[in-house]
Design goal:
109 residues; mainly alpha; Cytochrome Bc1 Complex, Chain D, domain 2; 4 helices; 38% helix; globular; binds heme C
Amino acid sequence: MRGHRLFIQICAQCHGMNGEGVDFMGARLIASDWVAQRSNQELVAFLKEGRPAQADRPAMPPKGGRLDLTDRHLYDIVAFMRTLGADDAASVDDTSEGSMSDQPLPSQP
Ligand code: HEC
């Protein structure tokens, strides 16, 4: 899944490889009510915006710091986040990665 690879490359440093969350960094995303209560459009809008730092936690950077991501990438990531609430989230499998070559991640500036 494309979104899975993007998540690992960009989001996992702060949210964990499987969205399990990292202490004092990104929130846990597995089975997140916050995520579940938002539409795909709202989640993409959130990812573009990020969230300012709070007293007890750092900021979520817009697009996870990858400003070159397109909406399409963000929707793919949102699709991956949806799988994190599933019963089999722990076993999200990587074997389907061969099919994602149609849209490579843009190279970093
Ligand atoms: C530099 C670290 C960092 C990166 C990279 C990052 N995030 Fe975050 N993210 C955070 C922090 C910090 C928060 C706020 C956590 C909190 O408020 O408890 C957050 C919050 C979120 C939330 C809201 C969760 C909630 O329950 O409020 C979502 C969804 C999210 N991030 C998704 C992503 C996605 C998807 C990516 C990759 C495109 C990403 N993040 C990349 C640090 C990061």
